[in-house]
Amino acid sequence: MSKFTVFFGCNESGVAWWRAKQPAYKLMEKGLCNVTMFSVYDTVAEEDASALIDPADIVYIPCASGIQLVAEFLKYYEIGKKTVADYDDNMFDCHYLNPAYKTLGLREVHARVNGKEQYIWKDERNGFSIKDNKIRHASYTDILQIADSLTSTTPYLANEIKLGMQGREMSDITILPNSIDFNIFRPLPHKVRTGSKLRIGWAASDSHLLESKITLNIIEKLHAKRSDFEFVILGNIHEFRTSERAKKLPIEWHEFVDLGIYPTKLASLELDIAICPLEDVSFNRCKSQLKWSEYSSLSIPSVCQDLAPYHCIKDGEDGILASTSEDFVLALEYLMDNSEFRKRMGEAAFQRNYEDFNLDEVVYDWFEMFERTLSKDRKLFYKGQEIQRRDRLEKVSV
Length: 398
Hints:
Blueprint: E1 5-9, H1 14-30, E2 34-38, H2 49-53, E3 58-62, H3 67-78, E4 82-87, H4 101-104, E5 109-113, E6 116-121, H5 130-146, E7 149-152, H6 155-162, E8 173-175, E9 198-203, H7 209-225, E10 229-234, H8 238-241, H9 244-247, E11 251-254, H10 262-268, E12 273-276, H11 282-285, H12 290-296, E13 302-305, E14 320-322, H13 325-337, H14 339-356, H15 359-375, E15 381-382, E16 385-386
Parallel strand pairs: 1-2, 1-3, 3-4, 4-7, 7-8, 9-10, 9-12, 10-11, 12-13, 13-14
Antiparallel strand pairs: 5-6, 15-16
């Protein structure tokens, strides 16, 4: 039996790196199937996306949305190509302090800042359009009906996606956890830093502004009790970095880097302990264990929020769960004061992730999902009439 071909549609987002490029590269490395890929940087500008899609049996799109994509998914259906839509966030309930609210939010948001009421999100200002976002939300619902298969990262998120699937079965969603390529996430061959203080760290993108308050509380409380540590932050959260509270604390800042070198950058920080704080909001409950997995790939023990994404952790064995900033501080102090326990937990975290969240193994789940998708024979209807097939693909753009 000849290998099937999967087209991966990518942009340069973190979602595309984790949910498209990483599995695509691993599928190619293992020789499991053929892959074509469109990416803003990796594809010649003049190259028509149709030339990449034409040979594909399956079209896979992470974070699939938009009216144009709805139309294209219908085209693929008409000519017999299978489609897979992936979601690694709850697109229907984004918190207003997440930058993604700009394209996901459905309501204006205002709050009292410095004693004055002001808008955080105002319709038709700074690119925020409620009308456009409602159309985008409608496209999510349409794609959930049209795509042959759906993929997601956790059972919790899959249950949230199911709410928008209008009668489709839960079996139509395959859970493919965010996983680590241990060939690129690995410690540096030689230790560089020679300081005597323990290094505690947090890696966070701009989407984690909500968690900056928790992190500040943790650092302040720990710093008030002791000074035998260095706190390291890898990230570009401008509002956090420029806040008066943050300026008063001894924080070592590192700019976020391109994901292609992110594994090496994270390893270069040589962290002894890491934290994974999360505010308890519905959007965050739909996140995955990925940050813990990143740290664990480097044998760094972590203190993580006692929230759904981290409930896969065996508390006290391969990580520590904490509910409040006080809990975080107590857990951090215990790790700081018990070097053997700290080392043992880091090793257990590595082993657990190597066994359960290793892309070299999880890639076979991706392959099997694509195989199942190929075997499906779904029929789509519009106003009671079956949508007819045709024999060729018209020019499309991605």
